[in-house]
Amino acid sequence: QRSGDLSGRRIVVSAGGTHEPIDPVRFVGNRSTGKMGFAIAEAARDRGAFVTLVAGPVALETPWGVHRVDVQTVREMLVALEQAAADSDAIIMAAAPADFRPASPADHKIKKAPGQERLVIELEQNPDIIASIPGGGIRVGFAAETRNLAEYARQKLPAKRLHFIVANDVSAPGSGFGTETNQVVIFHDDGRVEEFPLLSKYAVAHLILDRVLERLAARERP
Ligand code: PMT
């Protein structure tokens, strides 16, 4: 067991987007690179936690000392996180799971017919992962928005039964998908709001873990 203020704690982190198959060679996906979630996994490890990192399809090296589970789709991510969250002290959802998936993925590569101008792919809703998982300890979500950040983030807090939500404006420069930095606002379930400047994703990770630790301590106080 490593030393640190999260020593012995079990922290579950999700990272990256998902690939929802259209056919055997194509998918619906998004721009998440996994950098935010991997930074949280590294920071939690550096503070002594046992870390399970459930990663969508990303191009990042596994951080040493972290237990990584790779998944492709939202439904696979849900199964992996359900298992990992069964005995966790905190679950931190930095992944960007697809809200919709192709309703009937084709068994074979879709070919274009002569003269075909359009292809219509019907999408159906995926499960909401964090809303479907009960417990998990301290529950932390992210909100990726391009407008009305505060309003949408506040709506997601009770809907997903979160202790706090880390909102990032993914259209702001240096923030959100693929960047090394992030600018976040944290909305708590008791109404507190904390705004931060543009920071490295590793620094944002520590801010999140500081708050997870405070919540764990408050919960365990006699
Ligand atoms: O990976 P990077 O390139 O570093 O980019 C980081 C990031 C922008 C992906 C990250 O900072 C971030 O904002 N992650 C959340 C992306 C997202 O899916 O946001 P959302 O507002 O759509 O979802 C709200 C919350 O519900 C999130 O915690 C999400 O993980 C979760 N969710 C969403 C959909 C779904 N089907 N199940 C979920 O659990």
Automatic annotation (TrEMBL):
Keywords, sorted A to Z = Decarboxylase, Flavoprotein, FMN, Ligase, Lyase, Magnesium, Metal-binding, Multifunctional enzyme
Q: Boundaries of each DNA/pantothenate metabolism flavoprotein C-terminal domain copy? A: 6-214
What portion of the full-length protein is represented by this chain? 188 to 409 of 414
Q: Name one GO molecular function term.
A: metal ion binding
Specify where the region named Phosphopantothenate--cysteine ligase lies, as residue ranges.
11-222
Q: How is the cofactor bound?
A: Binds 1 FMN per subunit.
Which biological processes are named by the entry's GO terms?
coenzyme A biosynthetic process; pantothenate catabolic process
Q: Which family does it belong to?
A: In the N-terminal section; belongs to the HFCD (homo-oligomeric flavin containing Cys decarboxylase) superfamily. In the C-terminal section; belongs to the PPC synthetase family.
What is the annotated role of this protein in its UniProt record?
Catalyzes two steps in the biosynthesis of coenzyme A. In the first step cysteine is conjugated to 4'-phosphopantothenate to form 4-phosphopantothenoylcysteine, in the latter compound is decarboxylated to form 4'-phosphopantotheine.
**Ligase is among the record's keywords:** yes
Residues that bind CTP: 99, 109, 127-130, 142, 156, 160
Q: What is this protein called?
A: Coenzyme A biosynthesis bifunctional protein CoaBC
Keyword hit for Flavoprotein: yes
Q: Which GO terms describe its cellular component?
A: phosphopantothenoylcysteine decarboxylase complex
Q: Which reaction does it catalyse?
A: N-[(R)-4-phosphopantothenoyl]-L-cysteine + H(+) = (R)-4'-phosphopantetheine + CO2; (R)-4'-phosphopantothenate + L-cysteine + CTP = N-[(R)-4-phosphopantothenoyl]-L-cysteine + CMP + diphosphate + H(+)
Q: Kindly list the cofactors needed.
A: FMN; Mg(2+)
The record lists the organism as: Tepidiforma thermophila (strain KCTC 52669 / CGMCC 1.13589 / G233)
Q: EC number(s)?
A: 4.1.1.36, 6.3.2.5
Pathway as given in its UniProt record: Cofactor biosynthesis; coenzyme A biosynthesis; CoA from (R)-pantothenate: step 2/5; Cofactor biosynthesis; coenzyme A biosynthesis; CoA from (R)-pantothenate: step 3/5
